Amino acid sequence: MVDPQVSVVIPTYNRRAMVVEATASVLAQRDVSLELIVVDDGSTDGTFEELRARFDQPTPIRLIRHPLRRGPAAARNTGAAAAQGSLIAFLDSDDLWSPLKLRRQLDFMAAHPRCAIAQCAERWLRDGRQVNPGRRHLKRAGDIFVESLRTCLISPSAVILRAELFRAIGGFDEQFEAAEDYDLWLRILARHEVGLVAEPLVTRRAGHPDQLSATVCALDRFRILALLKLLAGDGLSEERRTAVCEVLAEKCRIYGHGLKRRGRSEAAGFVLEIGQRATAGLICGGADFTREIAIMYRLVAAPETTITSDARPSAG
């Protein structure tokens, strides 16, 4: 069998009706050799059985099932690990593609062989009605690392990237219950510019109750961890490190004061002190962050984790 031009990965959890529509939008792609990998992340609503019944052979679909729910990061990584194509495209199970989405992006990547990652413009629907994304959410090209620190400017459903890049960067961090895309894109954007197909080839559907942004609390804890991971590395210029510190301080203030309001004084003190160090320019890279990152991973895994008084940020 000839390897596909692109491997498409759809992660899904309990979206029986929506994932059928997302899958159909991939199978409607024109003039493309593709493989479609749908990863059912432990659904309990009959999603897997519905997909198997509707899209049985000879459709180019591989269905993979996690026995238990592991989260969208793990589901995407599972799909990417099975991918045979030299390019990978992700589609969230509540979104849709226009029929020429992949063709336009494949043409772009062929015309720009040094481009490792590209995206396309989007159309937004909320509760079935079209809405205009704010100016800060508009897709753009080039070096967007600093702009992406405050606003996640790449969405999984709009992206296409080279499989070798995804694997070299380590894929999605599976300990992130949410904001796993923010973390991955920043790690990539620290090293690569992004290409853009300016046509709106993706329809993002919002407003349904099971969106992660509506079901996962305190999203800034994930973003703080992502920023600490960036600072712990040695690949940032001084200008970029300063920009990361500025945003880290902002997010620590927001999350820290939220913890304080909920009576989490020790955790609040830990987070606020990281923010104060970032504001004062005392943040250093390397091993200095071992303890902070470990504790933030605990807060990511269990928001009610108790932070003991000796778990203070180390001196910078």
What does this structure look like?
The structure is a single chain. This protein is an alpha/beta fold and 316 residues long. The protein has helices at residues 16-27, 47-54, 72-82, 101-111, 163-169, 180-189, 212-215, 220-232, 238-261, 265-279, 290-301, and strands at 6-12, 34-41, 61-66, 87-90, 96-97, 117-126, 129-131, 159-162, 195-206. The relative contact order is 0.11.
DSSP strand tally:
9
Distance between the termini: 55 Å
CATH topology of the largest domain, which one? Answer: Spore Coat Polysaccharide Biosynthesis Protein SpsA, Chain A
Structural category: alpha/beta
The total tally of domains equals 2
| CATH first level of the largest domain | Alpha Beta
Please count the helical segments.
11
Strand count, sense and barrel status of the largest sheet are: 9 strands, mixed
Strand content: 15-25%
What's the architecture of the largest domain in CATH terms?
Alpha-Beta Complex
Q: Roughly how much helix do the residues carry, as a percent range? A: 40-55%
Oligomer: single chain
The shape, in one word, is globular
Radius of gyration: 20 Å
Unreliable spans: 312-316
